[in-house]
Amino acid sequence: MTRPLIPAQLLGVREFNERSREIFRRIVETYLVTGEPVGSRAVSRQLPIQLSPASVRNIMSDLEQLGLLTAPHTSAGRLPTQKGLRLFVDGLLEVGDISEEERSAFQSQIRTADQTIEDLLSQATAALSGLSQCAGLVVAPKRNAPLKHIEFAVLGHDQALTVLVFEDGSVENRMIGTPNGMTPSALAEAGNFLNAMVRGRTIEQAREQIARELDEARAQLSELSRQLIESGLATWSNETSESWAQRTLIVRGQSNLLENIGALQDLERVRLLFNDLENREDMLHLLELTKAADGVRIFIGSESNLSSLSGSSLIAAPYFDPSRKIVGAIGVIGPTRLNYARIIPMVDYTAKVIGELLARGQN
Known about the structure:
Layout: H1 18-34, H2 40-46, H3 53-65, E1 69-70, E2 79-80, H4 82-92, H5 100-108, H6 117-132, E3 135-139, E4 147-154, E5 159-166, E6 171-177, H7 184-198, H8 203-214, H9 223-239, E7 249-252, H10 264-279, H11 281-288, E8 297-300, E9 312-320, E10 326-335, H12 340-359
Antiparallel strand pairs: 1-2, 3-7, 3-10, 4-5, 5-6, 8-9, 9-10
């Protein structure tokens, strides 16, 4: 697909005419390929019309005044600013489609038979990372397998371990608060009450069922058992909310971020980015913002409000479950000097493939 040119009024100036757009586009495209400042003589050779280097320099100077270009040195060529890259991506970039060769390479790296959702997402992220030569990351959906059994174990005077056993054989442990004076009999009573209604239900379905029946069963339950169940309900309510804070973040291909580091400040930026990827919380919050996007969303540099991404770009897209509900997001992180035209459709394609596999019940 081809994106429309940004009208001049969106820049707040009238001077951004067709000629200025063409020169600006050539500078950005050359920079994305070479990573070097682009001079007026090189631009004049690329133009389809006859225009002297002096005339090109004048237009480049105007673009610099608009905040779209910057000159690293007085006699050097120009580089696009973050504002310039944003304008280019939103209005001047021509985005095509992923090639058949890339589709085949991607499909060959994903084995769908007898794979868990986490394994499938890990393979898809590794494939996307390899094809894009960026770091790939994905937010895994919340577990939706039906429950089989619940057990409690007291850990201290105010904490208990809840053991959730799912019908797919997986086990999860959750910490919950306990009322003062919790007794083994109250634990057993709470466990019996919960197990009577959780089997065959997902956590969200079980939570809703328990909340409906707890009031009716209040007279039959001891006060300690009721408080323990309500503490569990409060914990599950937070985990089944729309927040992605408790989800799993899978990262692949981090070593790609170390490619083409040319200065100590670049190395420090990548070190900070590795820390953010390791801590995960800020990155999960950033990916959660893709829920509001219609398709691919692009964060360039400091737009993400993460200092570690000041010299990087994040391209991400949400993916859907069979009911068309957004359940996660997948994307890549790389330098701002990315091949956006190639990587944007690649991320979009990967998100759609994941949705299709989820719809087929591959897990």
